[in-house]
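User: Can you recover a sequence for this backbone? Please restate the input before giving your answer.

Assistant: Of course. Working from this structure:
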């Protein structure tokens, strides 16, 4: 009897341990299968992987380090002519008092901003208001501290975009991004030279798209709004996405103090690229009959004051070369009076 009980106990104990071993193997197999399923469901990495998350924010340090060398400091010098009297535009006033007494005075105005390298052979995008005019003297300071003279290829007041060319090759280029694919709340970096603090990087998001400001910044407005810190000197700098692609040219801020208040605006990359292509094709008029043209409205006034049937001498900028051409002044088909 005792032997039977002992044998039964041994069999029960062996069965218990065998069951534990079998259960453990089944659990291990289930966990391994679950891990395998999780890995297979992960999406394949793209060519530009998403940034790692550190402390709840994306780690964009590697993206910034690649983009910083493509952003430069820009200095522009313009000779500005100022009227000494509001009556100098009146021909009768000039007839009696002459042009010498109240002749316009000239002064040199300096403008500081940023620029973005968009081609390895030296093309640089910036803002028109950074350059000032097509007759400005422009120099750039690279990220490696080199200082170079820049030629003005063209300026576009309507979109506040200007295209420059520097004589060097092998430059680091920011890849173009598609600004039409931007989404509100997407992470962005603003890179520029605020207050001459070179290669400053700030982090923010896309706050809004398709912003128009009533023509206060440009004639054609389709701005990206961002809360990435933009300050004086950032104009013309790069706005990039989390993949390091150029998706905007930083242009302006809304501020009641003159400094950053969380609202900045950038020209979308698709528009900037289109304007750049146009500037490479068309001529820029820099003077009319020896008189410097500071903006498009000045050209229209000079043209309106010209007599039909005469000829006008124009100085133009074509592919960074300055040329002089003579064109006839004719009557516009859309007007009856003196406008040409």
């Amino acid at each position: 009897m005792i032997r039977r009980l002992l044998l039964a106990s041994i069999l029960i104990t062996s069965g218990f341990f065998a069951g534990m071993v079998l259960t453990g193997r089944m659990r291990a197999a289930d966990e391994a299968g679950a891990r395998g399923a999780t890995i297979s469901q992960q999406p394949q990495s793209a060519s530009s992987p998403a940034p790692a998350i550190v402390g709840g924010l994306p780690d964009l340090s590697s993206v910034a380090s690649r983009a910083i060398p493509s952003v430069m400091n820009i200095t522009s010098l313009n000779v500005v002519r100022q009227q000494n009297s509001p009556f100098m535009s009146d021909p009768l006033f000039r007839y009696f008092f002459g042009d010498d007494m109240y002749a316009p005075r000239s002064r040199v105005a300096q403008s500081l901003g940023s620029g973005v390298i968009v081609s390895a052979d030296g093309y640089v995008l910036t803002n028109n208001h950074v350059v000032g005019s097509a007759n400005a003297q422009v120099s750039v300071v690279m990220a490696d501290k080199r200082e170079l003279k820049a030629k003005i290829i063209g300026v576009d007041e309507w979109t506040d975009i200007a295209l420059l060319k520097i004589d060097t090759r092998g430059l680091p280029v920011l890849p173009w991004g598609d600004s039409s694919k931007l989404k509100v709340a997407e992470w962005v970096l603003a890179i520029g030279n605020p207050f001459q603090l070179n290669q400053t990087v700030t982090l923010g998001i896309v706050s809004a798209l398709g912003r128009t400001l009533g023509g206060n910044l440009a004639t054609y407005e389709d701005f990206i709004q961002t809360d990435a810190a933009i300050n004086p000197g950032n104009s013309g700098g790069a706005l990039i996405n989390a993949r390091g692609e150029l998706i905007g040219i930083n242009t302006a801020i809304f501020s009641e103090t003159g400094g950053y208040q969380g609202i900045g605006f950038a020209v979308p990359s698709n528009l900037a690229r289109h304007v750049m292509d146009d500037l490479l094709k068309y001529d820029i008029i820099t003077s009319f009959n020896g008189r410097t043209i500071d903006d498009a409205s000045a050209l229209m006034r000079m043209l309106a004051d010209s007599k039909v049937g005469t000829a006008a001498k124009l100085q133009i900028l074509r592919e960074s070369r300055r040329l002089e051409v003579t064109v006839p002044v004719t009557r516009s088909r859309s007007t009856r009076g003196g406008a040409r």
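That completes the design. The longest strand covers residues 105-117.
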